[in-house]
Amino acid sequence: MDSLLQQLEAYKSEIASATAPDEKQLEEFRIKYLGTKGLVKSVMGEMKNVPADKKKEFGQILNEFKLFTEQRYEDLKLAADSGPASVGTSIDLSLPGDPIPIGSRHPITMMKNRIVSIFQRLGFAEAEGPEIEDDWHNFGALNLPPHHPARDMQDTFYIQQNPDWVLRTHTSNTQIREMEKGKLPIRVICPGRVYRNETVSARSHCFFHQVEGLYIDENVSFADLKQTLYFFVKEMYGKDVKVRFRPSYFPFTEPSAEMDVSCFICGGKGCNICKKTGWVEILGCGMVHPNVLQNCNIDPNKYTGFAFGMGIERPALLKYDINDIRLFSENDIRFLRQFTPAI
Ligand code: 2NL
Fold first, then answer.
1. Which residue's CA lies nearest to atom 19 of ligand 1?
2. Which helix (H) or strand (E) holds 260?
3. What's the pLDDT at 89?
4. Which long-range contacts (CB under 8 A, 24 or more apart) does 115-123 make?
5. What does this protein need as cofactor (predicted)?
6. What's the CA gap between 279 and 244, in Å, rounded?
7. Given this structure, which CATH class describes domain 107-339?
8. pLDDT < 70 regions, the chain
9. Is position 235 annotated in a ligand binding site?
10. CA 23 to ligand 1 center in whole angstroms
11. Nearest CA to ligand 1 atom 5
């Protein structure tokens, strides 16, 4: 009997020092000590050789040995599951994680960012204004007389509850609000969404995006306007593009002009985009009309300024080779995924 007790003590220290850092060794431990042909079972088999008067005492000792071995197994299992040694065990920490999908920038946003950042480098500050605007900031202050065709109910979305409110038809409201603040000089670049009551088609939409710019100070001239826009065009379309100004008319600028660049698709040879002219119109501009300055309490005898406005959709359609303006606002994930990841 004593030799069996000694043997049990030896087994105990063996079990106590056994390690099982991974699943395989853990299973080997279980089979060796706790399996149907394992050590615990065979030690239990010794009971039949124990004299009847010692059976109770021995039964307790063997039971304790069994519990000890089972506990050791549980401890090893826990350590293998949670410890740093668990690489390659039940949890494989070397597996790549679940992918987190990265979004992409909207092509309109990318085009807007490009335009705005070029003007920011020239000292223009980005400004934003409301999309629901009163008649004065959208029309009146801009020298648009009460019966000007641009105010036509047919062209503008009026707010039913308050006919003095419209969905802004250009981002000029933002510049008017900047001028009203009365802090001069002003150099702002104003991107945003605008609305026109138009039939939606592949080529036009009832809402789209614009960037407008405004510079007001003493002695601002048409030469400043041209130089600023030359710089913009070179940064935007490359230094080899040619530029031309054509006289035009806007109620809020005098004189007014439209600016063309040599066609960046055909290089000026003539194609469908430039309608065989070799030129593409990209923006309208001019010197701020004295009435507009006056409407914002700026003295037109002391201050002059230039303004310009351009659409974002058309350049974006051309740059990304898109053939339907409606794609920009349909949120079709198959369309949106094609653009640069937003990192
Ligand atoms: C175009 C032409 C233009 C302006 C916008 C402007 C704003 C103020 C005063 C004077 Cl507050 N002018 N904006 C001036 C000339 C042209 O836009 O074709 N836009 C898409």
1. 309
2. strand 253-262
3. 56
4. 115/189, 115/191, 115/211, 115/232, 115/236, 115/310, 115/312, 116/189, 116/191, 116/211, 118/231, 118/232, 118/235, 118/236, 119/189, 119/213, 119/232, 120/189, 121/235, 122/187, 122/228, 122/231, 123/187
5. Mg(2+)
6. 9
7. alpha beta
8. 82-90, 343
9. no
10. 73
11. 309
Domain boundary assignment for the chain: 2-87, 107-339
What pTM was estimated for this model as a whole?
Answer: 0.74
CA–CA–CA angle 40, 41, 43 (5° rounding) = 65
Per-residue pLDDT reduced to its tens digit, 246-288: 999 999 999 999 999 998 888 888 888 888 899 999 999 999 9
What angle, 0 to 180 degrees and rounded to 10, lies between the N-to-C axes of helices 222-237 and 107-121? Answer: 130
Q: Ligand 1 pocket: which of 172, 294, 304 to mutate (most atoms <8 Å of CB)? A: 172
**Whether the Cβ atoms of residue 150 and residue 139 lie closer than 8 Å to each other:** yes
**For residues 170 and 196, what is the distance between their CA atoms, to the nearest angstrom?**
9
pLDDT of residue 82: 66
Which residue's structure tokens are 């065009």?
Answer: 233
Give nearest CA residue, ligand 1 atom 3.
309
What pLDDT does residue 49 have? 85
Q: What is the DSSP letter of 31?
A: I
In a 13 Å sphere around the CA of 17, the CA atoms on its Cβ side amount to 5
Written as six digits, the tokens of 228 are: 């600023």
Other CB atoms within a 10 A radius of the CB of residue 271 amount to 15
Cα separation, 158 vs 165, in Å, equals 6
